[in-house]
Design a protein that fits this description.
By secondary structure, this protein is an alpha/beta fold. Helix content is about 30%, strand content about 20%. Strands 3, 4, 5, 6, 7, 14 and 15 form a seven-stranded mixed beta sheet that branches. The longest helix has 20 residues, at about 270-290. The two termini are about 10 Å apart. The model has no long low-confidence stretch (mean pLDDT about 95). The chain binds NADP nicotinamide-adenine-dinucleotide phosphate (NAP).
Length: about 350
């Protein structure tokens, strides 16, 4: 099969298209082999290409028996996909060959920027019927990161979100375009920040208040508004909790950051010191919030079949739609990486594989 692989960490020149890779084999009874029709590109692909997270991912890979040669290379990137089931492990009861599925691939596994991928059956769900594979591939990774941040960690639900005021930082990217739609589908009130070129897109997705960070002073504009019940911050910043002053005080409000320094700390300091440093960083964040009765939480992408199924329902009800900015052919994957790396996403970049 064809697969984009890296044989070492670095920039785009590390990515090579192999046309003679082995189709991955099912090793666990609950795994399924999927023919990938489309996959998206996420910032984590760019970061993993450069080595991000390798210290922890390699520990997991070793435990999972993925290494055949005591090395993670050649490594296939790509964290989500839409495709067709080819073969199932003997304990898979919910899917059969021919089913159209969408899903995610854990970061320690071989990814989806390939013609075939093997995933656990718990990491997939049936693809929404109203989406093409390209449209479907744009959703699982950002959808489940939002599910983790807003539902699991942020404690928003379809029944408690109505009337809540939520600030989504960076509404125009893959995470933001999904977050706005999920919160609106659950009845919340969304304020978002983006650059001038994206104002129309985020309004179209339902944002109630849009702050253009290129032409407006974001901090000033936020001070003019009522405070928020929840703030979703996906941006890596030295001031991790810079928006904390805009949360309601003593009202169970939360700042959820999905750009915490956890993996970076482990890569920089090693596993044990990195975990210790992260506990210290998180404690500082929590203390900053606690003095005003707010809570600061870190959230991470987490596979969730329940999440995928709920997202699927919202997509089929047309409460959430895919926001695909650009589609690249499989052979042109390097351009897709360059595009995402240049920043200024307006939704998602997708690779069409079949
Ligand atoms: N913890 C996790 O498991 C997890 C998972 C997924 C993502 N993330 C985090 O979420 C981040 C965003 O992911 P994504 O998929 O949305 O990336 P993306 O599609 O590349 O979007 C990033 C967006 O941020 C906008 N932006 C940049 N600076 C901004 C600012 N100061 N104010 C407002 N908007 C700004 C960019 O547009 P302009 O450049 O035009 O402003 C772009 O639209 C990732 O970089 C990562 O840190 C974390």
């Amino acid at each position: 099969m064809s697969a984009w692989q890296i044989h070492g960490y670095g920039e785009n020149e590390k990515l090579t298209l192999s046309t003679s890779s082995r189709i991955p084999a099912i090793k666990h009874p609950k795994d399924i082999l999927v023919e990938v029709h489309a996959a998206s590109v996420n910032p984590i692909d760019i970061r993993m290409r450069g080595g991000y997270g390798h210290s922890l991912f390699n520990i997991w890979r070793n435990q999972g028996g993925m290494f055949s040669t005591r090395s993670e290379f050649p490594l296939v990137l790509g964290r989500d996909f839409s495709g067709v089931v080819i073969e199932t492990g003997k304990d898979v009861k919910t899917y059969k060959a021919g089913d159209e599925v969408w899903g995610v691939v854990n970061a320690q596994k071989q990814g989806s920027h390939a013609e075939y991928t093997v995933v656990s059956s718990s990491e997939v769900a049936l693809k929404p019927k109203n989406l093409t594979h390209v449209e479907a591939a744009s959703i699982p990774y950002v959808g489940l990161t939002n599910w983790a941040a807003l539902y699991s960690v942020g404690e928003l639900t379809p029944s408690n979100t109505r009337g809540q005021r939520i600030l989504v930082i960076a509404g125009s990217g893959g995470i933001g375009t999904f977050a706005i739609q999920l919160i609106k589908a659950w009845g919340g009130d969304v304020t978002t920040t983006c650059s001038s070129e994206s104002v129309e897109i985020v309004r179209d997705l339902g944002a109630d208040v849009v702050i253009d960070y290129k032409t407006q002073d974001v901090q000033y504009e936020l001070r003019q508004q009522d405070r928020f019940d929840l703030i979703l911050d996906p941006l890596v910043s030295k001031k991790r909790v810079e928006y904390i002053n805009y949360l309601k005080q003593w009202r169970n409000s939360k700042l959820v950051t999905i750009a915490p320094p956890f993996l970076r700390n482990i890569d920089t300091y090693g596993v044990v010191p990195g975990v210790v440093k992260s506990v210290g960083d998180l404690s500082c964040d929590v203390i900053k919030g606690a003095k005003d009765g707010c809570s600061v939480r870190w959230a991470f992408f987490t596979p969730s079949q329940k999440g995928l199924r709920e997202i699927s329902k919202l997509v089929e009800m047309e409460k959430i739609r895919p926001v695909v900015e650009k589609v690249y052919d499989f052979e042109d994957l390097l351009s897709a990486y360059e595009k995402l790396e240049a920043g200024h996403s307006r939704g998602k970049t997708v690779i069409q594989i079949k």
